[in-house]
Design goal:
The protein has 113 residues and is mostly helical. The chain has 2 domains: 2-80, no CATH class; 81-113, no CATH class. Helices cover 51% and strands 11% of the residues. It is built from 4 helices and 2 strands, in the order H-H-E-E-H-H. The chain has helices at residues 2-21, 23-39, 85-99, 103-108, and strands at residues 51-56, 71-76. A two-stranded antiparallel sheet has the order 1-2. The N and C termini lie far apart (69 Å).
Length: 113
């Protein structure tokens, strides 16, 4: 048994070294295989009622400088309601007056659905 343990340890060490050397192409292959299934999954029906935060565009699995930067998605409750342009403008003016933040500038970045 002891005679077999040392060669197995050497083979295992060599395999670890090979995996370390080829870690970049291996991680790309794993991401290419796993990412499509993860991205196609709709997790919203499985979420309990409440407030949920998700980070998107965080640079993985494949960062691309031609794409938009990171963002945060907040899911509150079950339904999604999109206020009209006038309501958004009213809220933007309120935020500017109350907090001094450039909310109308942010409003220009929102495209209608």
């Amino acid at each position: 048994m002891r005679k077999l343990l040392f060669p197995l340890a050497i083979v295992f060490g060599v395999l670890l070294c090979i995996a370390y050397v080829f870690r970049a192409p291996l991680s790309v292959k794993v991401a290419e295989r796993i990412a499509p299934g993860m991205l196609a999954t709709d997790i919203l029906p499985g979420l309990p009622d409440g407030l949920h935060v998700a980070l998107c565009g965080a640079g993985s699995p494949f960062p691309d400088p031609q794409r938009a930067g990171p963002c945060t998605v907040v899911v509150a409750g079950r339904g999604v309601s999109v206020p009209g342009r006038d309501e958004l403008l009213s809220r933007a003016h309120f935020i500017e007056e109350r907090l001094g933040l450039p909310a109308t500038k942010w409003l220009r970045m929102i495209r209608p659905l």
